[in-house]
Design brief:
By secondary structure, the chain is of the alpha/beta class. It has 16 helices and 23 strands.
């Protein structure tokens, strides 16, 4: 009877498909994988195709076939379709939010913000269809006109992570499309439904067949996409180790590659800071999305004069955070994404206690009883008395763990913040405008906040970091256009004779 019941349950799980050339199709592998709810692993969200190299080849072929038509579609027309996409996302926001929380675990308010960011990105980027500015400039010869324009790079492969299941795909997809590129997306294997929801919305908006394609699956599909000779650009968000391997593979074929990787972000709390406000920001920065953000506030660098009071207030507040299934609107912290992540995070907690010998001020345990028994829940965790060189103060944990580090002077604090391999986001809490501007000048990160946490990017500003965080590109804002376009310089000589630039002397 148990086996029959299990078979029946499996048959009722909804199946989803790859989207290739405008058709929803199975994987040629014939294999499937289950997308499970990290808050309750007995809840199967859906069954998705485990794609292989043949599926990637088919998707790339479809994108290649659609490229000329889409490139020649006027950019304002492309933008109109993308604006319609934004309207569809807005119409379905509540449904997409619920489904995202179920597959990824983040609480409803955060999932709603994720979908809203995709909406904002779509509306904002659609406006670029009537800009995509180049520029004119005086030519060095008489009767000659000089200007430059943007042109699409070609076929783009997008590889996206689990933590922002709709926002990050939109950051890549929408600019690629408005610039006239065609796309193959390899969805995050833990969150494929949110990508499917985005692609179905593209289909409904009227994006032509073959322009957008999605393959679901694991590393085999991602590697096939990276290695495909017809793919001109790879845009990747994920771990530093994987990003490095992708960069090496892309270098062999001279592909364009855009990498957004790790972070070890810090908030500086000065002795004149509003402590309650700083604690609020630290809670949000460290434990929002269960700490699974590349911008998470995983280090709190606090002035020695207020260190004890800050730690006491922080720990008191952390202990009161409600942990649980994100579908319950009362909960503030959801599960981590999967068992592998849970084991890694717990391993770092043990490193903090045993190897680094930091003080475990609160948390540190996996929650396993009652409503937690089938989920990947970890208590929000705070370490105090942390030294900057400790592993928990240097390495990205990507979970609900933060470390409080004392300092004496602002220069010392800045040195601590800058003294890691990453350079994504930083913040300072102070009432002194001079200290704020000095910190903004000296903190070597791609993002810097004053009197706010390290998280909360807005789509009309560039997003990205320095050092090990990426390879210099920026997503969001108009700066993202530099990833998905290449420059073409144009010269028009109407002199009626040969003018040899950089050779002929122009008579005045």
């Amino acid at each position: 009877m148990a086996n029959t019941k299990q078979e029946t349950t499996k048959k009722t799980v909804k199946k989803y498909y790859n989207y290739i050339g405008g058709e929803w199709v199975k994987s040629s592998s014939g294999e499937w994988f289950d997308n499970v709810n990290p808050a309750d692993t007995t809840d199967i969200v859906g069954r998705f195709p485990a794609s292989n190299e043949d599926d990637v080849n088919a998707a790339v072929a479809a994108a290649k076939a659609a490229a000329a038509r889409w490139r020649r579609t006027p950019a304002p027309k492309r933008a109109e379709i993308l604006f319609t996409l934004g309207e569809i996302l807005r119409k379905n926001k509540n449904t997409f939010t619920q489904q995202m929380t179920r597959e990824m675990g983040k609480v409803l308010k955060e999932a709603g913000g994720d979908v809203q960011e995709a909406i904002d990105c779509t509306y904002y980027t659609a406006g670029e269809g009537r800009r995509l500015h180049g520029f004119t400039t005086p030519a060095e010869m008489p009767n000659k006109f000089a200007m430059c324009v943007r042109q699409p790079v070609g076929l783009c492969g997008l590889i996206t992570p689990f933590n922002f299941p709709m926002a990050i795909p939109s950051w890549k997809l929408i600019p690629a499309l408005v610039c006239g590129n065609t796309v193959v997306i390899k969805s995050g294997e833990d969150v494929p439904l949110s990508t499917i929801n985005l692609i179905k919305s593209c289909e409904e908006a009227g994006i032509p067949k073959g322009v957008v394609n999605v393959v679901n699956g694991f590393g085999e599909a991602g590697a096939a996409l990276v290695d495909h000779k017809d793919v001109r650009l790879i845009s990747f968000t994920g771990s530093t180790a994987t990003g490095r391997r992708i960069a090496e593979a892309c270098a062999r074929d001279n592909k364009i590659v855009s990498l957004e990787m790790g972070g070890k972000n810090a908030i500086i709390v000065m002795d004149d800071a509003d402590i309650d406000n700083a604690v609020d920001g630290s809670l949000w920065g460290a434990f929002g999305t269960s700490g699974q953000r590349c911008t998470a506030s995983s280090r709190l660098v606090v002035h020695k004069k207020i260190y004890k009071k800050f730690c006491e207030n922080l720990v008191e507040r952390v202990k009161k955070l409600r942990v649980g299934n994100g579908l319950d609107p009362r909960n503030e912290v959801g599960p981590v994404i999967n068992e592998r992540a849970m084991e890694k995070i717990h391993g770092y907690i043990e490193i903090g206690k045993i190897h680094d010998k930091a003080t475990l001020a609160c948390g540190g345990n996996r929650l396993t009883k009652g409503d937690y028994k089938n989920g990947y829940f970890i208590e929000p965790t705070v370490f105090t008395d942390v030294k900057p060189g400790m592993r928990i103060g240097q390495e990205e944990i990507f979970g609900p763990v933060t470390s409080v580090i004392p300092f004496s002077t602002l220069d010392e604090a800045i040195e601590i913040v800058n003294g890691v391999a990453y350079g994504l986001s930083s913040a300072i809490y102070t009432q002194d405008v001079n200290q704020a501007f000095y910190a903004m000048q000296e903190l070597y990160t791609g993002i810097c906040y004053v009197n706010s946490a390290t998280i909360g990017a807005e789509v009309h500003l560039p997003f990205g970091g320095t050092k090990g965080t990426g390879n210099g590109h920026r997503e969001a804002g108009t700066q993202v256009l530099d990833i998905f376009t290449e420059w073409k310089s144009l010269y028009v000589d109407y002199s009626g004779k040969l003018q040899k630039a950089q050779i002929d002397a122009v008579e005045i």
